Each structure stands twice: as C-alpha cells, then as structure tokens.
Amino acid sequence: MTSGYAVREAAGEEDRERCFAVRREVFVEEQGVPRELEYDTYDATAVHVLAVREDGLPLGTGRLLHGADATGRTGADASVGSLGRLAVSRAARGLGVGAALVRAIEDAARGRGLAAVDLHAQTHALGFYERLGYVAYGGEFPDAGIPHRAMRKAL
Fold this sequence. Notes:
Layout: E1 5-9, H1 12-30, H2 35-38, E2 47-53, E3 58-65, H3 68-74, E4 80-88, H4 97-111, E5 116-122, H5 126-131, E6 135-143, E7 146-154
C-alpha cells in the first residue's frame, strides 16, 4: 500500500472491468479517443496492472504486451515488451500513481524475462517517462489523432 492505494496485476474479470473503467474515463471521455480504438484484441492476453484505493476505487491502470503480441509494436524483438494504455483518473493525478504503475509493469516484464520495455508516449508525457528512465527515439507520429513518440527503457 502506497499513500492509500495499492498497485497489483489485475486478477479476474472484476479487476479488468476496473481497468477498462479508468481507460474509458481518461482516453474515451477526456481525450476523445474513439471507443473502438481504445479496446482491442490485445486486451484478452495483456498483463493488466491496476491501482486501487483502500476502498476498492480504481485509480489507474496500464498494460504490458509481451511475446507475439508485442513484436509488432517493438520491432519484432521478442525480448522487448510493450507498455501501453497507461491511464490515471483525474482525481488521482499527482499522487505518484502513474510512476507506481510503470514500475509494476516493468516488474511484470522482468518476471517474464524481458530485457526492455517499449512504449508510445503522448508527447505531453515525454518528461514523465524520461524521469523514469525512458529514452525517446524516432520522429513524432499520430495515434488516435494525438501526437506520440516511441520510447524505450532497458531493464
């Protein structure tokens, strides 16, 4: 438990629904990402992490793709996982939830024998990921109409 919340791998359908609720709030409602782009087939096999308040309220989420699911995003390197769908509810921002989620995803990647984690960061979040050790590479590109850059961190 950190500052009134815990971060863990999602376990079961109820936890996954909590993850999806945070993503809906942040990406679909706040940022206007079309629902059909936010949820994809990778959700079925991804490792989802969840930050929850002591009373069970979901505060944030993220996911890790690995193996064949990640290779399309990471340059066909099976030793690199793909961090994505990192979202923190408006009420929980500034509490360290995002950094705790990234650390949990990195731990999940290490536990699966991965050597690095790749991600596509919204450009406004580059500084956040840089503070956590990620390095940007390549040019800016749009994803769901939002500017992004690819980043990577060796584990």
